[in-house]
Fold this sequence. Notes:
By secondary structure, the protein is α/β, with parallel strands linked by helices. The protein has helices spanning 12-19, 27-39, 43-63, 82-89, 102-111, 129-132, 171-178, 199-212, 220-223, and strands at residues 68-72, 94-99, 118-122, 137-138, 149-150, 156-160, 186-192, 231-232, 238-239, 259-265.
Amino acid sequence: MIGGLQWRIPHSARQINYLIGGKDHFQADRDSVERAQLLVPQLRTAVRQHRAFAHRAVRYLAGVGVRQFIDIGCGMPFHPNTHDIAQSADASARVLYVDNDPTVGAHAQALLIARGTVAFAAGDVRRPKTILNSEAVTTDPAGDPGALIDLTRPVGVLLLGVLDQSTDDPIEPAQQLISALPSGSHVVLSHATLDFMPDRERHGAAAVIAAVDLWHPRTLAEISPIIDGLQPIDPEWVSTAAWRPSPDTHVVRDTEALFYGVVARVP
């Protein structure tokens, strides 16, 4: 239940849900997004391309044998979700969804089907221990055998549009999280950017995105150190539209993407 006047205040998770065609949003979310699109018309395309990148990356990880996933900053449930894609490769694949937003948590608990292989945990990427110390996660071979995610075995960690949700420096907490992953794990990372936009459009776009409070874009130089020491999977640090696009999909220019994407392996 939405208490108080929350339904009148735009919410980033609901705004994104609206942009990708979901149903979990209110008029305030829709209005704010439509106003933003007047000045940043590629907004809907960028968010949908970001979603498509996530799907391709999860399929890639499933294809190389990853059977455990932690989706951090998962946002509102929307089909297909990470577990839909992972479990289409192996029905036993396990997925832990993590978010620090109570609104997202309430929707996730209500809409995600608990099968013993899918769960939700409250956690914040800015405080990695809230994730690593979750009851759903074990980092000890002799730990809780009932934990959903076993970090003594390879895991795919999804950091999709979450590090750009805050003005805090994303490098240290992300690297702290990555340092806990065993060899053979993979990290899928995306981050909002204005690098692909023509110079004449950047200032206006930055102001609009800040006003809508969807993301805090950064340059490649600001975010690339996150994966220092990892093995990027080709292609490295490209727009989400350019990361292994499906041959039968419409070609989207980098200027419409608004996100960097990268997949990297923990050596």
